[in-house]
Design brief:
Layout: H1 2-18, H2 24-62, H3 71-117, H4 124-166, H5 171-205, H6 210-220, H7 225-251, H8 256-291, E1 296-299, E2 302-305
Antiparallel strand pairs: 1-2
Helix pairs in contact: 1-7, 1-8, 2-3, 2-8, 3-4, 3-5, 3-8, 4-5, 4-6, 5-6, 5-7, 5-8, 7-8
Length: 318
């Protein structure tokens, strides 16, 4: 069974690579625009908050040494609160911008991949008209998925904290339990993410969103969830080195231009991984359809399941 699942996973990867040649020019344009705009805004975000964080840290270190009843303490506290408000405002603005960019990119990638999987050419005019139609459904589903992810992260944090606090006096036992729990929480997160990400594909290719899309994705992926788990593990393993290098390089003393160029390059690589992930999930969606005995036909932006042509004849008719 595991060998069959592994072969199915490799087949999904193979099909995801092969369909790049169909509507390839449009996919290149979508991917290029996505990684340039997203990476640019990400680098701007880091460069914008860095001086604010540095100033906030400097003032925070000096604050305990000041007289709590003195004028200088009050002025420093007011300045710190002002910096915090500025930091929160800047972060909210950038996060919303990055979220909108991601939505447009995911929407476009899924639509182009869906057309390519079904051997259909999509013109620029049709593509431009289709993107806004599915964007609202994708936004609603993304909102639900974000809530689920935040809820799971809180659950994972509590799961990691409670047992480790109870055995914190025993360092060896503490480390063993912590590693076991970390592996368990990460595995569960990747496992649940199969349905969460697939629901985004469903909301773009079908007329449903939110809880309905999550339910449809859960029903579709039955029998194929292990392939989705393999896909999540692969993409996260490939993304981890980039994130690790990005975090380490940020701490290294380099010129601002060097840091910005390096950050742009790393985030662009991560965007390419995300693009391939959504291509693979779109292929997984159609494979799940086939696995459930449904034959897919895409017409415009609406998906239809073909009804078997065998007629149902009442038993009493000779």
């Amino acid at each position: 069974m595991e060998v069959r699942k592994l072969l199915g996973f490799l087949e999904i990867l193979s099909k995801s690579i092969k369909i790049l040649s169909k509507n390839g020019r449009l996919m290149v344009v979508v991917t290029t625009v996505y990684l340039i705009i997203y990476s640019l805004f990400f680098v701007l975000n880091l460069s914008s908050i860095k001086p604010i964080i540095t100033d906030l840290f400097t003032k925070g270190v000096l604050l305990p040494s000041l007289d709590p009843q003195g004028l200088l303490f009050a002025q420093s506290l007011v300045t710190i609160l002002k910096d915090v408000k500025t930091l929160v405002g800047v972060e909210i603005a950038f996060l919303l911008t990055l979220f909108v960019i991601s939505l447009f990119a995911q929407n476009a990638i899924i639509l182009v991949t869906g057309a390519s999987y079904n051997d259909k050419k999509i013109s620029n005019k049709d593509f431009i008209s289709k993107v806004p139609r599915a964007l609202t459904r994708l936004f609603i589903t993304s909102f639900h998925v974000t809530l689920l992810r935040v809820g799971f992260l809180y659950f994972g944090l509590i799961t990691l904290m409670v047992p480790t606090i109870m055995v914190s006096e025993y360092k060896i036992v503490y480390k063993m339990i912590l590693w076991v729990l970390v592996i368990l929480v990460v595995t569960l997160y990747l496992y649940f993410s199969v349905v969460w990400v697939l629901s985004l594909v469903v909301s773009v290719l079908e007329e449903c969103s939110g809880i309905e899309a999550l339910g449809k994705a859960g029903r579709l992926v039955k029998g194929k969830k292990l392939e989705g788990l393999f896909l999540n593990i692969l993409t996260n393993l490939l993304a981890y080195p980039f994130l690790h290098v990005l975090s380490k390089f940020t701490l290294v003393s380099q010129s601002e231009l060097t840091q910005a160029l390096f950050q742009f390059f790393v985030i662009s690589c991560i965007c390419l991984l995300i693009t391939f992930e959504f291509q693979a999930y779109t292929v997984l969606y159609f494979e799940c359809k086939k696995n459930n005995g449904e034959e897919i036909e895409l017409q415009g932006n609406v998906e239809y399941s073909k009804i078997p042509s065998t007629a149902i004849v009442p038993d009493h008719i000779p």
